[in-house]
Amino acid sequence: MNILETRSLSHDFGGLQVLKDVNLQVLAGERHAIIGPNGAGKTTLFNTITGTYTPSQGSVYFKGRNITGAGPCKIQRLGMGRSFQITSTFDRLTAFQNIRLAVLSQKGIRFNLLRFVDKMDTVTRDTEEILKRINLFEDRLTLAGNLSYGKHRSLEISMSLATNPDLVMLDEPTAGMSVDETHYAVELIRRLTEGKTVVIIEHDMDVVFSLADRITVLHHGTILATGTPDQIQQNEQVQSAYLGEMED
Amino acid sequence: MNNKSRWALWIAGAVALFLYPRLFGIYYANIFVTFAIYALYAVSLNLLLGYTGLLSFGHAMYFGTGAYGTALALTHIKGLPLVPALLAGFFAAFFLAICVAPLVVRVGGNAFAMMHLAFGQLMFVLALKLRHITGGEDGVGGFPIPPLSIPGLFSLDMGDPILFYYFAVAVIAASLWLLWFFTKTPFGQIMVAVRDNTKRVDYLGFRVPHTKAVVYVIAGAFAGMAGAVYALFQNLVAAYDAYGILTSFVPVMMTMVGGIGQFFGPICGAGIFGVLDELTTRYTDRVELVLGLVLVLVIMYAPYGFTGFLTYLRMRWSASRAQRSPA
């Protein structure tokens, strides 16, 4: 069953066609990677799906519902979380407070003006549990902006996951990480997304081939191919357009 | 600090507030009431500016509406008791904030600041021109100040400056406690998150405009509360003092001098302004010049204000202590 589907999705920025007739299908429970050279439209695809932009044409279906043109907040509440290519956390709040915000959202605590948030024991417990799972418990009182790059990225990814979404959209989660950090992040993603559907944009081919069940290749705003890692590796079109370029 | 010493501190503070007018007399009691009114007013602004990241150049419209609300209610309703009169000001500002909120919550930054400059000035001009209601430049004054009473139990004459001091301090302390409490609730966390990264709040599933609207209405209503106490204190509300542009800028300056985004920052700022004002008027009447100079110095050398500077000193101190005695 498709949890996410785009139907002839197109988007242009003032005449510059970035996405052309994209028909993406993501199966429930799979880890789906989107790869493609710089400027292929990967992040724009993410932005039109998660509500940053309203697509110029076409539609987006999530869990069978048409969500075309809905805002980020509404889409999130339907069960789609996302992380950002450029780390986006609450930098003047502590790691603990960052995760706690996600936990509050997950529990639907939004306009509560009647209780001390520090005294909400289940919220605190859940937050600490998440922090332990991502090895940030020691750093829980550090401001997010002062965390090391790798930890900051982990925090960002975990925030997207802490709201317990059915589908997680990760935009280059390992961007800018060292080899060790990337290794760790991949394990973290694998561990935290157990049983969830993941769509991931990634440049690192090792990450893609070790993590993804299926891969979609985007090139000049259109889908070149979709298939298992093996199928993609053997696809001649993909090789000439993308993998070939990489080996130069 | 453990619970016991915290309680001791609170009790000491309450005793000091109780003894203060008896020790220093009516003149200083009145100065303290003025300080307390501005402290509440500045804290309500800091909820927008420091916590949610919204700079308003027109917060006086809520202060002034609160003041006019109470003054007009007492002028036109015969025998209105004290607490309903106070609430008249509070709710006047509250309803004005509810009406304005939908217009301003979808913008931020400069647009928010400029829209408030415009709205604030609009209210000022209305107060000047609608003379038959507001009395224009002369304002509304000489209205009866009812006693604080429970029929059959007690009645405290609010014309007595010392008794009024107790009443004003109690109302303002309760309001400040409520606002402090709001910043500690889950909603208070979301408010700070909006300041830090609005986009992320949206992607976490919180509605940003609704969140801003709630903060906005709370900030407006409590500015109105400060205005209501001001009306009772002065027994005169006029356009320049209630809605004037300076009345909008003063809490912004107090918040910056005291420490932006810290709950006690604006209170310190109001205190610093009060003391400076009192000291400079003894030597010169160019009070604004001195206050302006202080603001410039703070922005240049202590951008996080007085409380930020204290935090910095404390960190330096504990760092140097750690250096001297390595554990």
Task: Please tell me about this protein's structure.
The complex is a heterodimer of chains A (248) and B (327). Chain A has 248 residues and is of the alpha/beta class. Chain A has nine helices and eleven strands. Chain A is globular, with a radius of gyration of 18 Å. The mean pLDDT of chain A is 89. Chain B has a domain at 24-244. Chain B is built from 14 helices and four strands. Chain B has helices spanning 3-51, 60-76, 82-104, 109-129, 131-134, 161-183, 186-196, 198-203, 208-234, 239-243, 245-258, 265-283, 287-301, 305-324, and strands spanning 140-141, 148-150, 154-156, 236-237. In chain B, the strands form two sheets. A two-stranded antiparallel sheet of chain B has the order 1-4. Chain B has a two-stranded antiparallel sheet with strand order 2-3. Chain B is globular. Classes of the chains: A alpha/beta (248), B mainly alpha (327).
Strand content of chain B is under 5%
Overall shape of chain B: it is: globular
Count of distinct strands of chain A: 11
End-to-end separation of chain A: 39 Å
Alpha-carbon Rg of chain B, integer: 21 Å
Terminal CA distance of chain B: 22 Å
Radius of gyration of chain A: 18 Å
Percent range of helical residues of chain A: 25-40%
Could you tell me which chain pair has the largest interface and how many residues each side has? A-B, 35 and 27 residues
What level of helicity do the residues of chain B show? over 70%
Element-level helix/strand string of chain B: HHHHHEEEHHHHEHHHHH
The average pLDDT score of chain A comes to: 89
Gross morphology of chain A: globular
- Count of helical stretches of chain A: 9
Number of helices of chain B: 14
In short:
The complex is a heterodimer of chains A (248) and B (327). With 248 residues, chain A is an alpha/beta fold.
